[in-house]
Amino acid sequence: MQALLDPAILFFLLGLTAGFLKSNLEIPPQVSRFLALYLLMALGLKGGFALSQSGFGSEVGLALGLALLLAVIIPALSFLLMRRLIGQFDAAAVAATYGSVSAVTFITAIQYLEGRNLAFGGHMAAAMALMESPAIIFAIALASKMRSKLAVQPGPQAVAPMGFKGVLHESLTDGAQFLLLGSIAIGLLTGQEGKLAMEPFTGNLFKGMLAFFLLDMGVSAAKNLPKLRGQTPWIYVYALSAPLVHAALALVLGFGLGIKAGDLALLMVLAASASYIAVPAVLKHSMPEANSALYLGMSLGITLPLNLVIGIPLYVYVAFRVAGA
């Protein structure tokens, strides 16, 4: 209950309510885009500043390696399950969506930990960046293989699927991803002096900007949920249970490798999250056969609210109970 009293989460719930009541509350797309870029830039800088103090060691390498492993295991498992429930192209798209990560969920978890003075490593921002692309590449490779087996040719009005090289380039140079990685590098290079120079940009402003952005996300989530009408009930089961299963997988592997509690909590958050920006943007061009309303409705309409309201407090509590403070 205490987590629901966080102002950022309350603004998300306010946005959800506005969407369900069909209020005309709306954040202009340009403002929403600015807020997203600001949050990624601030997150990257904070991670870089922290890395400049802690440096790179075996602990950092272990956490980043596990993040990359999860980014490979989760989409593979997702596809094996979902292809039994829905079409193969839709299954590949859902696997990409749930194998990738949500920056908003991760940023909210960072704020949750900071608000409770719980320690975590700045390198986890790099872990988030590492986990974004493998699932996309995995899904595109699957789609290419399925097309060759089925001899599928796009119709004259269809969008031509993007080639593998194009997907690789777009996933690695996407503006948000590029900004995040660049901000980490700048924070790492400038260290404590940079941190002092960038206050209050990365400090006091962060919470308010996050709350404003989550208000917009709440409205968007409410608008995307109706897109799932008429779909098999199994997608609702998956959208609600997959975050918990993926978080549990991260918990088991992370605890077995001795990952510290704060980093373990963030790995659980990343594993449990689902992309609703990067993956849909790429799949729109590279996998036109998939139903975008399906994977976007699942990630934004169900999984994002679940993680923000219930998941983050649960993952943090379990991680610190299991791995200690």
From TrEMBL:
InterPro entries: Sbt_1. The keyword Lipid metabolism does not apply. The keyword Membrane applies. The chain crosses the membrane at residues 6-23, 35-56, 62-81, 93-113, 119-143, 205-222, 234-257, 264-283, 295-320. Keywords: Membrane, Transmembrane, Transmembrane helix. Coiled coil: none annotated. It holds the Pfam family Sbt_1. PANTHER family: SLR1512 PROTEIN (PTHR40400:SF1). This is Sodium-dependent bicarbonate transport family permease.
